Amino acid sequence: MADALPAFPIAPNRGLGWMNLGASLHAILTRLKSQPQLYPQIDLSYSVAEPVLELIVLNLPANGLRLRFDGPDQRLRLIEIIDFSKSSFTYKSQDLVRRSGSSNEAIPEWVPGPSFKHLYNRLFGPSYPGEYIPPSSGDIQGTYVLSWPGLAATFDIKHKSWSEKADFVSLLSSSVASPATSLAIFSGSSWPEVRTSLYTKRPQLPRSLALAGKSAETVPDEVEEVVIHGSGRLELFRRTSSSFTIGLNETTPQDLVAELGPPDAIFRKPGNGLSIHAGVASSKPRRPSISPGLDPHLAEHEQSSAKSYTDDSENETSNIEEAQDDESTSEAFYNYFHHGFDVLVSTSQSRRSTSKETPADFVVTKVFLHSNIPGSYSFNRHRRSRWRIALDGNGQSLELTSEMRFKQVSDVLKEVWHSSYRDAEEEKRMQRGMVLNRGWGVGDSPESSIELLGGFEEGPSPQDQGSINAGAQASLPNMSNTELFGFPGLLFEVLKKDTISCLTVYQHEA
C-alpha cells in the first residue's frame, strides 16, 4: 500500500500544520530535514547579490508547498499551496479538495484545486470582491484573487469574459473560471491590505516552534535583537520579557542558564590553543593592538561550536557544571543555536587564579553573533541573529546594523578609531583583512574555525539568484575564503559579497 498523503490543517492568520507564520528559517529547515521521508526534496532560492535584504524562498515540490521568508529577519511570512495533489489539506476537519475513492492511500498524479463554490459555501464563507489581474500580452487568461482574513485563493479567468460590472460570485461559479490554482496563508485581514507590508511588519507569532502557544515562564523567551554598547556590554532584547545584559568578564554561566535557558550544546575547547585575540591576552606591557590577533603568526586554528552541530551525543546539556570542572580545558562554548549565537565561557583575565588549589571563576569572555547567510559554510547551524552597534561620535549617536554591508560598517569604525593609530602605516596595516579557508580542515577542528564560522560563498551559481538543495548542501561547489577584519572589541568575518557572516564581541583592554 502506498504511503498516505501528508496532512496539513489550514489555520488562517496562523499557518499550515506545524508551520507557523513568523517561524524562523532555521526552525523550519531543521524540522523539514529531520523528516526526509515526509519532505524528500527541499529547494532554497535566494539572492546572491543581496542575501540579507531580499526574500528567501523555500520550495517543497514533493509536498506542493512554497514558503516565503523575509531576508533581514528570516521569518516565515507567506505559505502557498501550489499543488493540491501532493498533500492532504483540511480546514476545520473538512477536506480542501474533494477526492474520489480512497484518496489517502495513494498519491494521484494530479487533482484540480478546490472550486469557488466549495470554498465559498462549505469552507471559508462569504467574501468581499477581490482583484482582477489582466493577462500579459498574448495570454488569454487573467487572474482573480479572492481573499478572506488570513487567506487568499487564486483563480484563472478567461480575459474576454471579464467585466468590471460582473458579479464576481456568478463569474467565479461559471465555466469561464477555473478551480483555485493556489491558496495563500498569511497574517492580516485581506490580501490587498497586507501585501505592501507583508515582509516588514512584526509577526505576531514567535520564531521558535517550541514557543508557539507557550509562555516565557515555561520556555525561555527568544532574543529579538542584540545591542552592543561597548565596554564589553551586550543588551539582549527579548520578545516579551525584559532585556538581559551580558557583561564580558562579569556574566557567569549560571546567569546565562537562568536567563536564556540551558544551551543547545556545549563544546569543550582544548586549553592549549592560542586565541585569535592573542594580542589582547598578552602578558607583556604593550600598547593594545587596534586589530588584535590579526597577525597570522599569532593565530592557531581552534575548535569551535561547529563540532556540536553534527555530534549531538557528545554535547548533551544535562550537566552544565561539567564544562567548568573539567581539568582538561579552561574554556567552553555554550551553543545557543535557536537564539543565533554562541558564548565562550572561560576564566576571566582579571579574576584568573594564580593557585592551582583555588578554583578559577568562569565568566563570559566572548559572544559570537551569527548571520546565517544562505550559501555560506555555516548556513542553518544557527538562526539569524540581528544586532546593532551603538556608537557616539562627533557629538551624535550612530548605529551600525547587521543588515549593512561591511564597507558601510568599516567606514564608520575607521573614522571612529582613526585617532587611535600611531601613523598612517599602522592604520593601513591594521585594516588589512586576514584570509580564512573553511574547506580544508586542520586537525580535529571541523572547520578550522578560529572560533568563528563561515566559508561557502555564492552557492552553485554566479547568477543573481542562487539556489541550493538543503539536503545536499555539503556538495555545493564554489567554496571560497572569508576574511577577518578587527576593531577594538569587534571582529568581523566577511564573505566575498561584502556580507557579514559573523560578528565576535570580546573585551577590549584600552
UniProtKB/TrEMBL annotation:
It comes from the Eukaryota. GO terms for cellular component: trans-Golgi network. InterPro entries: PHAF1, PHAF1/BROMI. Residues 277-327, 455-474 are annotated as: Disordered. GO terms for biological process: Golgi to plasma membrane protein transport. Residues 462-474 have a biased composition (Polar residues). Belongs to the PHAF1 family. This is Uncharacterized protein. It comes from Knufia fluminis. The lineage of its organism: Eukaryota, Fungi, Dikarya, Ascomycota, Pezizomycotina.
